[in-house]
Amino acid sequence: xxxxxxxxxxxxxxxxxxxxxxxxxxxxxxxxxxxxxxxxxxxxxxxxxxxxxxxxxxxxxxxxxxxxxxxxxxxxxxxxxxxxxxxxxxxxxxxxxxxxxxxxxxxxxxxxxxxxxxxxxxxxxxxxxxxxxxxxxxxxxxxxxxxxxxxxxxxxxxxxxxxxxxxxxxxxxxxxxxxxxxxxxxxxxxxxxxxxxxxxxxxxxxxxxxxxxxxxxxxxxxxxxxxxxxxxxxxxxxxxxxxxxxxxxxxxxxxxxxxxxxxxxxxxxxxxxxxxxxxxxxxxxxxxxxxxxxxxxxxxxxxxxxxxxxxxxxxxxxxxxxxxxxxxxxxxxxxxxxxxxxxxxxxxxxxxxxxxxxxxxxxxxxxxxxxxxxxxxxxxxxxx
Length: 384
Hints:
The structure is a single chain. The protein is of the alpha+beta class and 384 residues long. The chain has two domains: 1-106 and 211-255, 3-Layer(aba) Sandwich (Rossmann fold); 265-383, CATH 2.40.50.100. The chain is 25% helix and 30% strand. The protein is built from ten helices and 20 strands. It has helices at residues 16-22, 71-79, 121-131, 136-149, 165-177, 195-212, 223-229, 247-252, 257-262, 357-362, and strands spanning 33-42, 45-55, 60-64, 86-91, 94-95, 107-109, 183-187, 215-220, 232-237, 240-245, 267-273, 279-281, 284-286, 300-305, 310-311, 322-332, 336-342, 351-356, 370-375, 381-383. A hairpin with a 2-residue loop joins strand 12 and strand 13. The radius of gyration is 25 Å and the shape is elongated.
């Protein structure tokens, strides 16, 4: 899309909610993209429920969530392809709330590539430049630069049907970047590709984004994809933001049960608070960092922890959170196994544990074997 010719208006003071989401404070640089109370209704259905968000210049942000959570609708509202019902949007210091798509400064890549089948690769990439009446020599130079940048030098004369899915997506990416937009929008750009190509292309997109420094928003339902490329992840559920944070924060410090359950594998076990500040899971008391003073004794809670946070070694004598478990199932996943454990100590509760093939072979462990395990106190996440 071409930028507006209108002079940019001054950015009003950032709404408090947006600053809070961005992790900023008074006096911090104004965000590059800012959303304030954005809502979208389809009849009586509210697809977006008051979205407040601020994105810094040069950030790579992923909108992550299940199908129907509102992430694609939010991207389309930012692009002006969907009219929002309430709220305001700013980009680079000017309000874009009422601007049509052609007057917003962005490039977009769709899941379906949306290449023109009757145009060559060069003409597809040059489409936005030609519409802006860029001199022909500059267009050729820019197309050659971009095709080299996305790893497709010498492909100018080909047509989309002559290229693989991964190559077509590279062409779509080059076309989106042709006009040097300030914002790059990616709508599930890798979901139609096979697993190996998807991994390779997401690494290339991340490297390209770093090289160009373009502010980027990618919509995805793939947790691994979001964790591997994003500077920050916006986890969405039922039209609202559940949590915004770095990949490590989202994975290690989920703010809600939904985030804990949606992002990565997780154990969710029932527990009860004890008078001494510990948690009792089944028949066994456990300590967790920061548990003391939170909640009343006898309160029923759910404890979340990742399979890799249940350790089989090293375990020293007298360490806390150690219990004996019985192996009830082993799922082979290549370089490691996902082992299900239970036993008297957990009194009916079960945990999934990540163990290496080498460890299982070395300890001669199989279904029915017993072994000591330890829960890491700092990794227990407790929700009422």
